[in-house]
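Message: I would love a firmer grasp of how sequence relates to backbone shape in proteins. Thank you; the sequence and its tokens follow:
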Amino acid sequence: MPTQKRNVSQRDENLRSIRRQGRKNWKQTSGYHVRSLAETAMFRMKTIFGGKLSARLIETQITQALIRCAALNRMTQLGMPQSYKVNA
């Protein structure tokens, strides 16, 4: 039960901080937004390429992960609209 009490108090402190700063400021100061973006990126990568690497050696696993990241970045880049100013 001690861990349960500690978790509740940490949660309560986060809620108090959100009330004091506002949700947007709290996300920036706590790093929540960055963590959320990282989790979303990992979810996308696992959904597209699967959750496992097929390489056995750590060096080739690193290469395989980097290739997947490059491919995911390229797919994201291709899906982004090209914005430009229209003179009226």
Observations:
- Residues 48 and 72 are 9 Å apart (CA to CA).
- The chain has a mean pLDDT of 87.
- The radius of gyration is 20 Å.
